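Researcher: Next entry in the queue.
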Amino acid sequence: MKSKTTLSALGLAALLVGCAAPQKPLYQWESYQAQVYDYFKDGSKEAQIAALEKDLEKMRAKGNVAPPGMRAHLGMLYVAAGNDSKGIEQLVAEKTQYPESTAYVDFLLKKYQKQ
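Model: Structure for this entry, 115 residues:
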């Protein structure tokens, strides 16, 4: 009986320790959300590109992962700014990192390659 109580106490302690351990966020957002907001407010595309590129560089340096959609957004900004090759490069990177975005990214690639 005592071993059952001890085992239960150890299990509860392990559960509490596991729940209390700080975890690294899955994605690093940096200024991505602010850049999306600026995009819809007709902000400077060049400034948004610079901010997102800086964010990606910081993420790479820290070994963090860019959130879904960030590279696709950056790709659309590049195309809107007239740099189609960089835009397509970012869209392909989005599709590679997040295969679930394939249908949307392929739609964008088809659209931009016709232009």
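Model: Residues 70 and 115 are 23 Å apart (CA to CA).
Researcher: Noted, moving on.
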